[in-house]
Structure formats: C-alpha cells, structure tokens
Amino acid sequence: MANINANTPQLKVVKQWLDAFFVRDGNVMDPVLSKDFVYETLPKSIGLPDERRERHIQRLNEAFTTVEKFEVRI
C-alpha cells in the first residue's frame, strides 16, 4: 500500500489508484475510474485502440499476473 496522507478527495483517488498497482489487482481501481473512462495510448501512430473502463481493468489484471512485486528504491 502507498503511504499517503489522503486528506483531500484528489489524494484519496491517487492513493486508491496506487494501491491497485501495489496489490497488483486492477479490480481495486474499478471504483476510481468513471463510468465513461477511456484510456488512450499515445502516440496514436502506433495504432493501439482506445480502451473502455472494463477492457482497461482486464488488461491491467493480465499484466499484473506477470509481476510478482513492485519495489521502489531511493
């Protein structure tokens, strides 16, 4: 989990988004994303399609299965 003092609504969303990555579960991100969320891959010239919310969460979960842990070092 991310160690963030989430005193504002914006920081609460950032913390929840980061927590989804640290626990490697895209479903944790579900409440953070709006119902009309669209993920755009840039640059457009590489030809990847935009992803709606459900597909983006599915792709994150697929990617997370290949990662055992996230480690941050300073």
Assembly of the depicted chains: single chain
Strand arrangement in the largest pleated sheet: 1-2
Please, what is the average pLDDT?
86
Order of helices and strands: HEEH
What is the general shape? globular
Number of helices: 2
Number of domains as seen in the coordinates = 1
Largest sheet: 2 strands, antiparallel
Helix/strand-derived category reads mainly alpha
From the N-terminal CA to the C-terminal CA, the straight-line distance is 17 Å
* Proportion of residues in helical segments: 25-40%
User: Beta-strand level of the residues, as a percent range?
Assistant: 5-15%
- C-alpha Rg (nearest Å): 14 Å
Low-confidence stretches: none
Q: What's the total number of strands?
A: 2
Keywords:
74 residues; 35% helix
Describe the fold and architecture.
The protein is mostly helical and 74 residues long. The protein has one domain. Helix content is 35%, strand content 5%. It has 2 helices and 2 strands, in the order αββα. The radius of gyration is 14 Å and the shape is globular. The mean pLDDT is 86.
Structure in a nutshell:
The protein has 74 residues and is mostly helical. The chain has two helices and two strands.
